[in-house]
């Protein structure tokens, strides 16, 4: 593996790799984490817990969006004479 090549990854490398692999929906969270914390000192478990909590929020939002129902109304053409007759 990497030991043969004398290559080792730091925690910072792991944090960067995880952040690069996330989908675009996660970009605001990644930016907030980068601005709020020093990534070179960040513990991998802290990053993972932040991402898990964000995922839980996304799941709650998705469930709420599925529960909301939309109503579509059909329109029909009526002549002005028909409208006057109904009044």
- Share of helical residues: 55-70%
Helix run count: 4
N-to-C order of helices and strands: HHHH
Low-confidence residue ranges:
none
Strand content: under 5%
Q: Work out the radius of gyration.
A: 26 Å
Q: What is the molecular shape?
A: rod-shaped
SSE class? mainly alpha
Number of domains: 1
Distance between the termini: 84 Å
Rounded average pLDDT? 83
For the biggest sheet, the summary is: none
Q: What is the tally of beta strands?
A: 0
Secondary-structure map:
Elements: H1 11-21, H2 27-36, H3 44-67, H4 80-86
Descriptive overview:
There is one protein chain. This protein is mainly alpha-helical and 87 residues long. It has one domain (1-87). The chain contains 4 helices and no strands. The longest helix has 24 residues, at 44-67. The radius of gyration is 26 Å and the shape is rod-shaped. The termini are far apart. 1% of the residues are buried. The mean pLDDT is 83.
Can you describe this structure in just a few lines?
With 87 residues, this protein is mostly helical. The protein has one domain (1-87). It contains 4 helices and no strands.
Provide the descriptors you would attach to this structure in a database record.
mainly alpha; single chain; 60% helix
